[in-house]
């Protein structure tokens, strides 16, 4: 806890040592000062005491991401991903890329909302200084690094979109697509660079979710984690928007806009209205059929009555 004036607050303190870590620490202080979003742990203060630099940030009391997702429906989990994507979009709008989004940097707070932590290796998009994370000095987490990060290419918003897609796979599968290679760094790097694991993301069946909706969500996660940055969603906002379309049962951009797919999705989204309309049409058709049958039966009875009448009249005249 830290006393400030007449009040106290509980904070999370980050401390640093010398060397490159101190440089990264100073960078984090500058980055966090720009961010104010309910999905990001707030920055409070920073300074140096007894030769040691410190940053005071909001203390988030909550559960790790996977624990917080236990028992949640697919819709609730997608809602969490949308909130995270919007928090990341907030950072991107301020020219900040997180670069280390992973389950360990997300907590689910007491209100059930996801909170993004640790901008320790975040980079300003307009920063022209030498990279702090070049080979041999990188603190990033290999399993959640984007292919371009491993290739040493310039890093942009696409690497955070990639990490958000991996988070989605973890949230629904309980593990990352690279779980089988995580114990061997070289095999893990090869799998990440090839992109075959993310291209084959498969979500477990859920009785509450139709197969077509499951396939749509798989397509969203695969697009977000495409090996080439240009093939991913262009922004975290676009990723969130496609997830929102999924929630609303609308066609998702990750599946393309083929007429047959769009028609199937629209029919599924409005299935109750379609069913109700079909029931009305069936009732109308049945009613019309009964009406025509009744009209035909009445006409037949009228013809029979007329014939009987003519027969009786003829019989009467014959006996007169």
Give a short overview.
The protein has 2 domains: 62-268, Transferase(Phosphotransferase) domain 1 (Transferase(Phosphotransferase), domain 1); 271-320.
Written overview of the protein:
It comes from Hemiselmis andersenii (Cryptophyte alga). The chain crosses the membrane at residues 272-293. This protein is an alpha+beta fold. It folds into two domains: 62-268, Transferase(Phosphotransferase) domain 1 (Transferase(Phosphotransferase), domain 1), CATH 1.10.510.10; 271-320. The protein has eleven helices and ten strands. It has helices spanning 20-32, 65-69, 74-93, 147-150, 157-173, 185-194, 196-199, 211-224, 236-247, 259-269, 271-319, and strands at residues 2-4, 7-9, 11-15, 43-49, 52-58, 62-64, 96-97, 106-109, 114-116, 123-124. It has a three-stranded antiparallel sheet, with helices on one face. Strands 6-8-9 form a three-stranded antiparallel sheet. It has a two-stranded antiparallel sheet with strand order 1-2. A hairpin with a 2-residue loop joins strand 4 and strand 5 (52-58). Helix 3 runs antiparallel to helix 5 (157-173), helix 5 (157-173) packs antiparallel against helix 8 and helix 8 runs antiparallel to helix 9 (236-247). The radius of gyration is 32 Å and the shape is elongated. The N and C termini lie far apart (124 Å). Mean pLDDT is 83; it is low at 128-137.
């Amino acid at each position: 806890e830290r006393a400030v004036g007449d009040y106290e607050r509980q904070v999370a303190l980050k401390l640093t040592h010398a060397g490159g870590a101190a440089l990264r620490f100073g960078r984090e202080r500058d980055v966090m000062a720009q961010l104010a979003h309910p999905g990001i742990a707030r920055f409070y203060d920073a300074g140096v005491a007894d030769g040691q630099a410190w940053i005071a940030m909001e203390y988030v009391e909550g559960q790790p991401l996977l624990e917080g997702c236990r028992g949640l429906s697919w819709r609730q989990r997608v809602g969490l991903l949308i909130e995270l994507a919007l928090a990341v979009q907030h950072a991107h709008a301020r020219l900040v890329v997180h670069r280390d989004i992973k389950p360990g940097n997300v907590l689910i707070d007491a209100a059930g909302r996801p909170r993004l932590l640790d901008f320790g290796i975040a980079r300003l998009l307009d920063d022209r200084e030498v990279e702090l994370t070049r080979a041999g000095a990188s603190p990033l987490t290999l399993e959640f690094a984007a292919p371009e990060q491993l290739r040493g290419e310039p890093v942009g918003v696409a690497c955070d979109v990639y990490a958000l897609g991996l988070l989605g796979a973890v949230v629904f599968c309980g593990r990352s697509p690279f779980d089988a290679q995580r114990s061997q760094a070289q095999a893990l790097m090869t799998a990440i660079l090839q992109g075959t694991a993310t291209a084959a993301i498969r979500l477990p069946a859920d009785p509450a979710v139709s197969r077509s909706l499951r396939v749509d969500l798989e397509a969203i996660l695969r697009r977000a984690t495409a090996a080439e940055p240009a093939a991913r969603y262009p922004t975290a906002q676009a990723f969130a928007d496609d997830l929102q379309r999924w929630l609303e049962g609308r066609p998702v951009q990750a599946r393309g806009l083929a007429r047959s797919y769009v028609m199937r999705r629209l029919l599924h989204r409005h299935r109750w209205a379609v069913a109700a309309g079909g029931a009305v049409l069936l009732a109308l058709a049945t009613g019309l059929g009964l009406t025509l049958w009744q009209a035909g039966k009445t006409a037949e009875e009228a013809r029979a009555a007329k014939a009987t009448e003519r027969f009786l009249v003829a019989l009467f005249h014959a006996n007169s």
